[in-house]
Amino acid sequence: MRDFARRFARNVGAVFGLVLLLAVLALALLAPVLFPVDPWQMAGVPFAPPLEDGFLLGTDSLGRDVAAGIAHGAHISLLVGLVSTVAAIAIGVTLGAVAGYAGGRIDDAIMRFTEFFQTIPSFVFAIVLVAIFTPSISSIIAAIAIVSWPPVTRVVRGEFLSLRSREFVQAAIVLGQSTPRIIFGQILPNALSPIIVLGSLMVASAILLESALSFLGLGDPNVMSWGFMIGAGRSVIRLAWWMSVFPGVAIFLTVLALNLVGEGLSDALNPRLARRRG
Amino acid sequence: MAPNRRSPAGLRRRDFLAAAGATLAAPAVLGPGDALGQGTPRRGGTLNMILNPEPPVLVLGVNNQGPTLAAASKIYEGLLRYDFQLRPQPALAKSWTVSPDGTLYTFNLQENVKWHDGRPFTADDVVFSIGKFHMELSPRSRAIFQRITEIAAPNPTTVTIKIREAFEPFLLMFDVTATGIVPKHVYDGTDFRNNPANATPIGTGPFKFNEWRRGNYIHLTRFADYWKPGQPYLDDIYYRIIPDSASRGLALQSGQVQLTQSNDIEPFDVPRFQQMPNLAVETKGWEYYGPLSWIEVNHRVQPLGDVRFRRALSMAIDRNFILNRLWFGVGKVATGAFSSATRFHDPNARIAGYNPREAAALLDAMGLRPDAQGVRARLKFLHLPYGEVWTRLGEYLRQAFAQIGVQLTMESVDAGAWARRLAEWDYELSINFVYQWGDPTLGVERTYVSSNIQRVTFTNTGGYSNPQVDALFERGRTAVRAEDRQTAFSELQRLLVAEVPQIWLMELAFPTIYDRRYKDVIVGGTGVQASFGDVYIG
User: Fold this and answer.
1) Nearest CB partner across the interface for B399, out of A42, A46, A222
2) Which residues, at least 6 apart from A153, have a Cβ–Cβ distance to it below 8 Å?
3) CATH superfamily label, B27-75+205-283+511-538
4) Could you give the number of structural domains in chain A?
5) Contact A221 B396 (CB under 8 A)
6) Which one has a higher pLDDT value, B21 or B385?
7) Which of A96, B1, B70, B103 is an S-S bond match for A157, by CB 3.0 to 4.6 Å?
8) Strand intervals (E) in B367-440
9) Which pLDDT value is given to residue B66?
10) Spatial separation of the C-alpha atoms in residues A84 and B477, rounded to whole Å
11) Which of B399, B402, B412 sits opposite A221 (nearest CB)?
12) Region B119-125: what's the mean pLDDT?
């Protein structure tokens, strides 16, 4: 473990990303303390530029505090990113593990099913799902999870295909361990590192997806989110650039942080690969 | 909300908003009254304007959506046209008389009028258009023309219409956009909707159809045999089809088109064009339609059935904020159930102004006390999915109502689902805007009378029922003389303002933005839906 931390710390970008990510997390957790009022509250004069009237990042077309929106939006972005990724990984790991371990017809069936989902452009599919189930936090999380599990399945299946013929697995079979125990106790722990890396990158893409949906007006209308703020500010960008620029910067930094952390994790968990590259 | 005046940029913007308000308050600034007197019209020139979305067909009656009306009103004509006060003016009818009992209408038609294919226009065309064509095609016309007991053409330039009982607003039904006159020799005995001639519309208007490149443009040319001497002045009109709103703004800014109308330019872009010296922004020209927006209230849902609750909601809304911040000063604050452009509007019947404190007191008096979260009532709000500004309006209302302890939960739906949910009475609060067609009987009554509680959108879907209101609408509908109608409608407006059956918000205005070199563009209450025979380049 210490070894892992040392390898991770050697990557400056990854550490920077981790710090940034912790900052966003802190912002999300402290939002109710830093900005105790509702982010929808029309707190000031509409279109106040940044730093005016005591608004750090200005106000929007209804006089809502942009900074408060970003802080409360961080909560939603991270929540949607995490929950939908956990759900997608749960689906993906289960299907991938079964397909990779069982092989044969079951593998074929599961992979054709996965390909069916992969052929539909994921963003368009997410729009359709959200539009059908009316926009709300749960329908958005479900839609993002449904469009993002197929890559996990493929990765996990690949790992399982290579691991299931290894000696330790054969030993476990000979010892008479049950199939679920072999899958979850023996193979999965050894396939964990690519899943962790993939997961951290998926959180980033889930945040982007959620923002894109909200930008198009398919977000939960009762929840402040970054994508919604950009979408609402886009039309008045000549009048109030700060309405769309600051939430955009927030998305950019968060996604960048997640990508840096993901890459750092990948290097730290896969030292041989990283050394070859370095 | 008091405007703040610190930043130089903010100052400019706000001064400009104030100026925009002043323009609205003094309609003479760009009024056609000025333009009509100046200079003599000159022949020649082309007008490029935008049409969005692209209409399916250009025959009135077969399709009556906004874009169709805007283009087809140049090709076809009605018997009458209307000024800003909605007084009838001659068009295809030179003059008209109404019998003292209000049941016999006689129209004397213009002479030497020709169809675009060269055939002469006669009274038979009028009889056919009213008695058959629009009766079959248009539900709105059918509802009114059912009252006709006899329609005849005693000679080629006279039409007489007898109606069952006096119906004072009848004369408002003869605009080109309500009852465009179509050629009998093309349509009689055919399937109107699928007539192959629909592809090449033939009318009597100042411009005739020339070419339609789908997705690109519609080209109309000057009709040389037009009956009005000297008119039209322009040689060509091109309707450019530009589906993207940002591109529409650019086309206007760059001068590629010289006129935009209706929703072509988004409200947030209007201030930009108001600042351009070569463009005129005209908000008149919608009097005949009188679009009024309101919060649609479902009276079956408690506590919305309680008048005190509705009054409190109405008083929690700062309508000037909505007008200035969401619509950038384009439009007017609603005064009541009648648009101020609609006939018989009574300026003395006004809804109570913005007063959240009194609103909260009303709720206290009702016994609706705030709970632990400060909430007195929870309601669902269905967004009107007609574009961004309506979403912002919903967000504003949620905050405004939160101030008095009424919590709204927002629901987003698409346009089809919105219309369906309203029709099925499956909503608590929503937003709606409806055309008033110039007369309370034609466009206001349908929202409030109990006989019109139907499972159909744009009827009394909220289920408001008040025998007094029903009786006053009936008195206004059946009175022969305009003065008697005024008495009934004034009393009605005072009653409605106290009852707040819908929570009225704004009289919408769709700005017509055009190049100042073009004169006499908006000359009456139908605005851009007029013939444009008068338009010239000065």
Assistant:
1) A42
2) A91, A92, A93, A95, A96, A99, A110, A111, A114
3) Periplasmic binding protein-like II (3.40.190.10)
4) 1
5) no
6) B385
7) A96
8) 377-382, 406-411, 429-434
9) 82
10) 59
11) B412
12) 94
pLDDT higher than 60, residue B456? yes
Residue A170: which domain range?
2-35+57-277
Nearest neighbour of B1 by CB, restricted to A45, A53, A238: A45
Contact (CB<8Å) A40/B396: no
Using a CB-CB cut-off of 8 Å, the residues of chain B touching A238 are 272
Does A117 contact chain B (CB < 8 Å)?
no
Q: What type of residue is B160?
A: T
Cβ–Cβ contacts within 10 Å for residue A79, how many?
17
Touching B: A residues 195-254, CB under 8 Å: 217-218, 221-222, 232, 235-236, 238-239
| Tens digit of each residue's pLDDT (9 = 90 or more) over B476-513 | 998 888 899 999 999 999 999 999 999 999 999 899 99
Q: What percent of chain B has pLDDT over 90?
A: 66
Per-residue pLDDT band at A276 (split at 50, 70, 90): low
Average pLDDT over residues B96-108: 93
φ/ψ region of B14 (left if φ > 0, alpha if ψ in -120 to 50, else beta) reads: alpha
Average pLDDT score, chain B: 88
Cα–Cα distance between B450 and B428 in angstroms, integer? 19
DSSP codes joined into one string, B122-175: -HHHHHHIIIIIHHHH-HHHHHHHTTEEEEEEEETTEEEEEESS--GGGGGGGS
Could you report the per-residue pLDDT of A100-149, keeping only the tens digit for each? 998 889 999 999 999 999 999 999 999 999 988 889 999 999 999 999 99
Domain with CATH 3.40.190.10 in chain B: 27-75+205-283+511-538
Note whether B148 and B131 are within 8 A (CB): yes
In chain A, what is the straight-line distance between the N-terminal and C-terminal CA atoms, in Å?
A: 22
pLDDT beyond 80 at B371:
yes
Q: What are the tokens at A129? A: 């799902």
Tell me whether residues A38 and B413 touch, CB distance under 8 A.
Answer: no
Mean pLDDT value across residues B127-137: 92
CATH number at residue A221: 1.10.3720.10
C-alpha to C-alpha distance for B62 and B180, rounded to whole angstroms: 11
User: Which segments of chain B belong to CATH 3.10.105.10?
Assistant: 292-507
In a domain, A45, yes or no: no
Comparing alpha-carbon positions, the chain A residue that sits nearest to B413 is A134
Is A52 domain-assigned? Answer: no
In degrees and rounded to multiples of 5, residue B404 shows phi and psi of -105, 15
Contact between A62 and B399 using a beta-carbon 8 Å cutoff: yes
The confidence band for B243, taking pLDDT boundaries of 50, 70 and 90, is confident
CA pair distance B530, B522, nearest whole angstrom: 8
In a domain, A70, yes or no: yes
CATH class of the B78-186 domain in this structure? alpha beta
Report pLDDT for B459. 87
Cα B323 from Cα B335, distance rounded (Å): 13
Question: Which architecture characterizes domain B292-507 according to CATH?
Answer: Roll (3.10)
pLDDT tens by residue, A242-253: 999 999 999 999
Residue-level pLDDT at B386 = 80
State pTM to two decimals: 0.82
Rounded-to-integer distance, Cα B235 and Cα B47, Å: 8
Instruction: With beta carbons less than 8 A apart as the criterion, state whether B346 and B494 touch.
Output: yes
* Tens-place pLDDT, residues A230-243: 988 887 887 889 99
* Distance in Å, alpha carbon of A124 to nearest chain B alpha carbon: 17
Give the Å distances, CA to CA, from B425 to A143, B308, B453, B455, B501. 29, 22, 10, 7, 15
